[in-house]
Design a protein that fits this description.
Blueprint: H1 11-35, H2 38-64, H3 79-107, H4 114-139, H5 143-172, H6 177-204, H7 214-222, E1 227-237, E2 243-251, H8 257-275, E3 277-286
Parallel strand pairs: 2-3
Antiparallel strand pairs: 1-2
Helix pairs in contact: 1-2, 1-4, 2-3, 2-5, 2-6, 3-5, 3-6, 4-5, 5-6
Length: 299
């Protein structure tokens, strides 16, 4: 059985990004109400979702770092996956709300104070860009932080759209640009969140990790000279980094435990190097009368 360690993110950086996004959210809500800009209020709601996302990201990471116990043998490893799914789903929900509000504003357009839109849009760009840089490194190998990172990155891009819209309103008084920007933001949120919802759901459903070629894995195991076949295979991700494998190994000979240990140790190294499998559990068998289906329930 093999196992590896958990990655911790920087709590200090997350707290700084939370503080920055609270400032942005309050400022944009205030400015959106005064200016009458739906695009600015949309951006404020997106920033508020960032605050929630970052809080959840931080506490989920802390939960995932807790040690396993008798009543929680896997610990809280999936807390981060649940957080990632919640955050990405929240973005899609916000997107639907923005589209509904934008359609209403298309039907009943109102004047917008473009200077508030431009000024607070620029503030959001600057502070969100700083937030992106703060958690960029942690987002590479942590799905939970990646969800928060996507929130922040999308805010930079949507704030650019808000500023452009504000400039067009200022120059040409074309107020329909404001709800149009909101709809663009909404569709971007759906596009940015879909893959994360799909990936986190696949982990929770214990689907075979997409980066593992099952045929190649079976071939690697059965290339061991003393292994007749491998069957009853289960392979899944416990978290976004930990791939687990369990299987039955049917040996050619009635081997002593010391010899099977030696074979399994060698096999685990190969599986880790080739497929990044962090944890394995093998049931060793010899001449056992059981079903030899590679996958349980396979027809």
């Amino acid at each position: 059985m093999s196992e590896h360690h958990h990655h911790n993110v920087s709590g200090k950086n997350l707290f700084i990004t939370i503080a920055l996004n609270i400032v942005i959210t309050i400022a944009q809500i205030f400015g959106g109400i005064i200016s009458g800009s739906l695009a600015l209020l949309s951006d404020a709601m997106h920033n508020f979702s960032d605050v929630l996302a970052l809080f959840i990201a931080y506490f989920a990471n802390k939960l995932a770092s807790r040690p396993n116990s008798k009543d929680k043998t896997f610990g809280f490893k999936r807390a981060e996956i649940l957080a990632a799914l919640f955050n990405a789903s929240a973005l899609i929900g916000i997107a639907i709300f923005l589209v509904v509000e934008a359609v209403d504003k298309f039907m009943f357009p109102k004047p917008v104070n473009s200077l508030w839109v431009i000024g607070l849009g620029l503030l959001s760009i600057i502070l969100n860009a700083a937030s992106v840089l703060l958690i960029k490194d942690d987002a590479h190998d942590n799905m939970n932080i990646k969800a928060a990172y996507l929130h922040l990155l999308s805010d930079v891009l949507t704030s650019v759209a808000v500023v452009v819209g504000g400039i067009l309103i200022y120059l040409y008084q074309i107020y329909w640009v404001d709800p149009l920007i909101s709809i663009i933001i909404a569709f971007y949120l759906v596009w940015a969140s879909y893959d994360l919802v799909k990936e986190s759901s696949a982990i929770l459903m214990q689907f075979t990790p997409k980066e593992v070629n099952l045929d190649e894995l079976i071939k690697t195991i059965e290339n061991e000279p003393l292994i007749k076949n491998v069957h009853h295979i289960h392979i899944w991700k416990l978290s976004d980094r930990q791939i687990h494998l369990e299987a039955h190994l049917d040996f050619n000979e009635d081997l002593p435990i010391s010899k099977t240990n030696e074979i399994i140790d060698n096999l685990e190294d190969k599986l880790h190097d080739k497929f990044q499998i962090e944890h394995t559990t093998f049931q060793c068998e010899y001449d056992r009368d059981d079903k030899k289906d590679k996958i349980v329930g396979e027809k």
